[in-house]
Structure formats: C-alpha cells, structure tokens
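Posting for a labmate who doesn't have an account.
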Amino acid sequence: MSNKNKAIVLSSGGLDSTTAMAIARREGYEIYSLSFRYGQRHAIELEAARRVAKALGVKEHLVIDVDIAKIGGSALTGDLDVPKARSEQEMKKEIPVTYVPARNTIFLSYALAWAEVLGASDIFIGVNAIDYSGYPDCRPEYIEAFEQMANLATRAGVEGKSKINIRTPLIHMSKAEIIQKGTELGVDYSITHSCYDPSPGGSACGECDSCLLRKKGFREAGIPDPTSYTMK
C-alpha cells in the first residue's frame, strides 16, 4: 500500500496537461491519469496520453468513452471547419467554434467521482487563462465555482473527511513559462500532441489555434519545438 497522496490528473496528452502532471509528480503524488474518448476529431491525442502516462510513471491511466459528439456544437466533434492561421487578436475576439460545450465540467465530474472512490483530495487540470483560445471553462472563477460544488456534492466533502482541491498550477502562466517549467521538470514534449486538426498520419497542422499557441510558446521560451508540423 502506497503512503503517497493520490491525485487525479486530467490528461489530453497535450503540452499543458503533461506539464501539470509533471508538477504533480514533482510534488510527490501517486498519479491517476484520466483521459476521454469523446468523439473528438483529434482522437490521436489519446495515443499521446498513453505515452505520457508511461513516461511519467502513473499508477493507472483510465480512458473513458463519453460521446459528446452526439450533442455537437463544436468543430472538434463535428463537421465545422477548424479555424486556421488566426492572429492572437482574432483568437481573443470571441469564443471559437473549437469550444466543446461543457467539456471541462464533464471531465472534472468524472475526475471527481474517481477521486472520491480512490480517496484522493486533489484533481489537477492544465487549464490556462493567459495563452489560450478563450474558453470560458478555463477561467479561475469557473474553477473556483466547480471546487465549491465538488465539496457540496460528495460524501467526503459533506462528512468533512476531506476537501476536494481543483489544482490549476498553470492557470496564470504564459505558454512559454509552461514550456520552461516542464523542461525544468524533464518533460519530453516530443511525445505530446496539441493539434486540433492533425493529418491522417498524425502530423500537426501547424495553423490551428492550438498549434499557433504551441509554436509561439516554444519560440518565446527559446526552446526548440520538437513537433512535426504539416505547415511550418
């Protein structure tokens, strides 16, 4: 039986969630990685999540099927075009069509259920409110509200046995700072995947918002980008 505290880490196999996982590992947690097959067009990210789980030595990696694509409303789960080659100003102008309705609420709810079963008090999520695509469920006020709800909605919280903490170590960091932090912690970013619209072979498109933010982060961090892009 491990004496380590347990933590659930939401993992997309991307840059941010992998860095959050590396931070959790550095803090000494026994890590339970949670990923989702939710009808996303970039399901190749699950292969990256498996690579990350293996590389970071997680205790268990769980992949849950939840078909958000049946609800629709997002370019990531439907036939809408993924925006390409947008400026930072355009990204910040409005919530983009790559926003998946209620995605983080759904994911955090599953993480909360698993945390309660495992007796874990900490859930890590790699949301970021600086270099991001404008998603409403990445903001600090959303995270604070979910944490409050989590402690009202669980037996552990109501009985006062433990408090659920939604940990967001990256929320006030730029993409460059995230990459620098991960590099310090030994993260191999070549095993991660960020692209919303990858080629059939798995190469990143290089032009979607996620690719552009990733490239910008490596450039500003002064660290070589190991990503294979279809468009440079």
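Reply:
Got it, the structure tokens are right above this. The longest strand covers residues 30-37.
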